[in-house]
User: Fold Protein O-GlcNAc transferase from Octactis speculum.
Amino acid sequence: GILFCLIYHHSVVGTYSGDAAGLVEEGIRMAQNGRVDQASEVFERAAVLAPEDANVMFNAGFAMMQLQRPRDALRYMQKCVEINPNFREAHIKCAQLLRDQGDPARVVNHLRAAIRLEPSKPNAYLYLGDTLNNLKRWNEAVGVYETAIKLVDGKAPPDVVADAHLRLGDAFTNLKSPDHALRHLRKAVKLNPKNHEATASLWLAQLEGAQWNRLEKLTRHVLHTARQDVKRGVPSPVAPYNLLFLPIHAADMLPISASWAHRIASDALRAGDGDLSP
Assistant:
């Protein structure tokens, strides 16, 4: 079933207003019992009774999210932050809803508000960096990712830190700064060798940075990790039908022989390597 919860925020002034409190609790019980359509009506009635209560608006918006009504959810969440601009969770929900509705510019505004309210939480920085990266605001993305790395370095698990370095490396790649990109992508691969996306990004960065002396070993590694992904049936950052084209593409760009490309590509077809069909 769908689980609803009352969300309180330490900076919210006041509590649920009169009958609205009972309606919110009733809506939660209905939702937990699978009566989701009736629950949505109850939450909407609570919002009518308490139009200036941020908690009511948040819970009504959260209910609409669970009921797959994103436009209604956004309306309630935006009302929540209008009533209380310091309601961080509502800013995060607004960002999620706006992202899904294809409005990244407004996503940025809500994430910046969330960061202002809790500057020590790295997830919002990573989310903001990704949004800025998609908007091609790469210089801003770099600054945000660098702050995130400072927050997670030495504190978060290695795979989390590796992911932050991967995102920063990709942003530097977009900025055509191969030296900076390579430094962070190598860090990502070192921290988490199982992150195949980082391996593929490092391969591309070395290709663009014309680091021929390192490329053959890394190309073999990219092919190997992609084959592993195919065998396990999991998505690979290198599509299976592109495996053979990686070394051939390198041969087109680098001062190396076609025989080298053919030799590397042949490795992908060795017996026991699994089905490489798309």
